[in-house]
Amino acid sequence: MPYVNIKITNENVTNEQKKALIKGTTQLLVDVLDKNPATTFVVIDEVNTDNWGIGYQTVTEIRQDQ
Known about the structure:
Elements: E1 3-9, H1 15-33, E2 41-47, E3 53-54, E4 57-58, H2 59-65
Parallel strand pairs: 1-2
Antiparallel strand pairs: 3-4
Keywords: Isomerase
Protein name: Tautomerase
Domain 4-oxalocrotonate tautomerase-like: 2-55
């Protein structure tokens, strides 16, 4: 029973993109590990850019500097 947790910043990810991530991740586990898609769990966490840091800055700050 695989469990995959995908963490992304909450920057306008569409439902279609999320569905593609779930489908693609599930298919990868089916293809590589022969896992049953009915018992494969994919969870997507959207993280506020204020709560995601790279180096010494938050993603919010990095986006503002660009």
